[in-house]
Write a structure and sequence with these properties.
By secondary structure, the protein is an alpha/beta fold. Helices cover 24% and strands 28% of the residues. Bound molecules: zinc ion (ZN) (2 copies). The site of one zinc ion (ZN) has 6 residues, from loops.
């Protein structure tokens, strides 16, 4: 029996955590998605505030230590702010491989910079886990039946998405992307082709987007059209706008379903197994 490609959302909110009651149905933690395949160590995408709970769960699952990879899309706060609170980093029996499209030194410095006085009391070198920093080039990374390929996105200061292929299934993680740049949009459509699941930056409604051009995010409407064009199985609206209540997210999901029927809103704790 082929292995299953599994995915779980630990953080689905955009820009800043929103722990207010009206948002908790979909979730208030910022970007963090976990993938598992076969016996491979967990593959984590982004270190938003959702990374904190994931770290605690990993410590419970692997009480005598373990390893994981954390891939970053970019270094905006909402994608790295969970790193200082990722508990396995404080343990010498854990090995953590940080990955991004940047030079290893840039990756290391970018993560270390948010962890120094006066912004944070514990500096990165004081962490006890074994850490490494790896650059994912355009060819991506192949590991025991899993392939992780980067996708260039359009976002202030840059951002990349990832396509994960394993066991004949595929999931595309495309957050922090503003549509409208023809070459990038074309590249994303090609890379998303035939995926089982497309996770897409749907921060804005089309109306909201008009006054937020250049802020680096897209709309549910573009996501729905992209899902159709790329022929994916399912669209997951992600990076929810902080002002969007559960009611608001449900409303845009409904609108998106009119264009692409198999659309859902990303929900913290949602888990899927493909295969
Ligand atoms: Zn973001
Ligand atoms: Zn961003």
């Amino acid at each position: 029996m082929p292995e299953q490609l599994e995915m779980r959302f630990w953080g689905v909110r955009g820009s800043i955590p929103t722990p207010e009651a009206a948002n908790l149905g979909y979730g208030g933690n910022t970007s963090c998605v976990e993938f598992r395949y076969g016996g491979l160590p967990p593959m984590i995408f982004d270190g938003g505030s959702g990374l904190r709970q994931l770290g605690l769960a990993l410590e419970r699952e692997f009480p005598s230590g373990g390893e994981c990879r954390i891939f970053f899309t970019h270094f905006h706060w909402d994608h790295i702010q969970g790193v200082p609170f990722f508990s396995p980093m404080y343990r010498p029996d854990w090995a953590i491989r940080f990955c991004s499209s940047h030079e290893p030194e840039v990756l290391e410095t970018s993560l270390a910079e948010q962890m120094r006085p006066p912004f944070f009391p514990v500096t990165m070198p004081a962490k006890r886990a074994v850490r490494s920093h790896e650059q994912v080039d355009g060819n991506g990374l192949a590991m025991d039946g899993v392939r992780v390929r980067p996708i260039l996105l359009h976002h202030p200061n840059g951002s990349i998405g990832y396509r994960v292929d394993a066991g004949g299934h595929s999931i595309v993680y495309a957050t922090d992307h503003e549509h409208g740049d023809a070459a990038t949009d074309r590249g994303l459509t090609e890379q998303a082709a035939g995926a089982d699941i497309l996770i897409y930056d749907a921060q804005y409604t089309p109306d909201e987007y008009e006054s937020r051009r250049g802020w680096g995010h897209s709309t549910w409407e573009r996501g729905a059209h992209l899902a159709r064009q790329a022929g994916v199985q399912q669209l997951v609206l992600f990076h929810h706008e902080p002002l969007r209540s559960d009611e608001g997210v449900s409303a845009i999901v409904k609108e998106a379903q009119a264009i692409f029927a198999n659309t859902i809103g990303a929900t913290e704790g949602w888990h899927v197994s493909l295969g």
